[in-house]
Specification:
The protein is an alpha/beta fold. It has six helices and five strands. The chain is 35% helix and 15% strand. It has a five-stranded mixed β-sheet with strand order 3-2-4-1-5, sandwiched between helices. The relative contact order is 0.22.
């Protein structure tokens, strides 16, 4: 079954050995980017050096439209036979925003609210990075629907680190 996995960096090795994903997305600050894990082809590991900030003026390496374009292009090379694993430092913000963007792309327009609600149900800790989602909304031509859907999620459960979360592409 096609599924996205979202995890914190601390769980990466365990998730790879347990779920055997075919593709990997790393969203870490540029100075903390990891090497491609053993057993992965570098062409199946997308490294996005971004900080978890929502105001482009707040610091270096904010998420940009080019990061989202790269993420969507990479996710479209994934055939879905094995999982796609997305991780950031804590598995709460950058990786959840990326999963939200990929799910919105894969499942099509007008499902943003359904996807956001499924994300909240499966990941009470999710707090998708709004800047990354804003760029995804523009890239996918959703006219603000993705950002509005985030607003419907309500406040997240406050945790220091998320847990590995599975998002099936069928039967969210």
């Amino acid at each position: 079954m096609s599924r996205l996995l979202v995890a914190p960096l601390s769980s990466l090795e365990d998730v790879i050995s347990t779920h055997a994903p075919s593709h990997l997305v790393s969203l870490l600050s540029p100075e903390h980017m990891i090497e491609t894990p053993p057993g992965f082809e570098s062409s199946r590991h997308l490294k996005l050096g971004v900080n978890d900030i929502v105001d482009p003026a707040a610091g270096p390496a904010p998420p940009t439209r080019s990061h989202v374009d790269a993420l969507l292009a990479f996710s479209r090379t994934w055939r879905g036979e094995d999982p796609l694993l997305i991780h950031c430092w804590a598995g709460i913000s950058r990786s959840m925003a990326s999963a939200f963007a990929i799910l919105c792309d894969r499942l099509g327009p007008d499902r943003e609210l359904e996807i956001a609600r499924a994300m909240r149900q499966r990941a009470p800790h999710a707090q998708p990075n709004r800047l990354l989602v804003s760029h995804a909304d523009a890239a996918l031509g959703r006219g603000g629907k993705m950002l509005a859907a985030l607003g419907s999620m309500g406040p997240p459960l406050v945790v220091e680190e998320g847990v590995t979360t599975i998002f099936p592409l069928v039967g969210l």
